[in-house]
Amino acid sequence: MALAKTAKAIGAITDAISQRLNSRTNIAVSVGRPEPPAAAAGNRLNLFLYEVELDGNLRNIPLDEGQPPPLWLVLKYLLTAFDSDGKTSESIAAYENLGAGIRALQELSLFPLTPGLPAPLLEALSDNPEDLKITFDDASSELLSKIMQGSDEKYRV
User: Fold this and answer.
1) % of residues, the chain, pLDDT over 90
2) 3-class state of residue 83 by DSSP
3) Which end of the chain has fewer surrounding CB within 10 Å, N or C?
4) What is the mean pLDDT of the chain?
5) Alpha-carbon distances, residue 98 vs 21, 26, 39, 86, 101 (angstroms)
6) DSSP label at 7?
7) 144 contacts: CB under 8 Å, gap ≥ 6
8) Exposed/middle/buried for 134, CB within 10 Å: 0-12, 13-18, 19+?
9) Which helix (H) or strand (E) covers residue 37, if one does?
């Protein structure tokens, strides 16, 4: 990535995933902690960036010979779905929304930067030498406990 734009890459990736999820599922996508809003918001998916780590496999790989390697990052998101009241994540409708979101992410497993994405997003990610990749990790109850630590909210699928 161009060094001048990499500071915006994490936000740009989150925005790109959010926009693609919305366009493929026609379900609103919010970004932040998986908590219900104060007012009803309707069917929605929620993306929560819960971990950013360095990619150990690429840590010492430069983009160009003789250049210092960039910070290769792995971003981990939690996807939560809510039903039509915008607050319930444990209902048949919420599970259907979750299934639609997972299916859309699977379709995006190789995430090309195609025209039609907003210009700031393309600027921040255009010099990436590879397509972005989306993979799935298991979410154990231990992980959920760490993420929701200190919150009065109940666990969400």
Assistant:
1) 25
2) coil
3) C
4) 80
5) 11, 12, 21, 13, 5
6) G
7) 155, 156
8) middle
9) none
Give the pTM. Answer: 0.79
Name the DSSP letter for residue 68.
P
Cα–Cα dist 17/93, whole Å: 22
In a 13 Å sphere around the CA of 11, the CA atoms on its Cβ side amount to: 9
SS3 8: helix
Arithmetic mean of pLDDT, 26-55:
85
Query: CB-based burial of residue 17 (10 Å sphere; 0-12 exposed, 13-18 middle, 19+ buried)?
Result: buried
Residue 2: the pLDDT is 45
Instruction: Say how far apart CA 52 and CA 110 lie, in whole Å.
Output: 19
- Gap between the Cα atoms of 53 and 41, Å rounded: 32
